[in-house]
Fold this sequence. Notes:
13% strand, alpha/beta, Rossmann fold
Amino acid sequence: MKKEVLLDTNIVIDIALKRHEFSEKARNVTRLLYEKNITMYVTATTVTDIYYIIRKHSGHNEAIGFLLNFFDYSEIIGVDRNVIINALKSGRKDFEDSVQIQTAKQNNIKVVITRNKKDFKNSELTVFKPDEYINELLKKE
């Protein structure tokens, strides 16, 4: 398994907003990724979505604080013209997911962790829910 993954927006939002039914699994998978030195990426476009949602829920300072802390252990991957053009031409109905898929492809990232696997169906990416990825990592030990 490659040593890098793309985190879907919902994983980061679950952690930030402490969404009761999802946050524990999201925190557990990011903790394990960090411990195993697996690079976690989010797309640059995801960052603005995350900021907007946290700010709306908890305020500007909370959003800034969370993001600065989150980027102590994760990376931001760029979105360029190629990604946007390919996302627009992809035929996918969800443009945001298409941008994430195209960004992963362009940067040779093969794995995405999400709560909504169906959003990445037929994407050529290996898609895991947080608990599935944890189980996959633990199986390899």
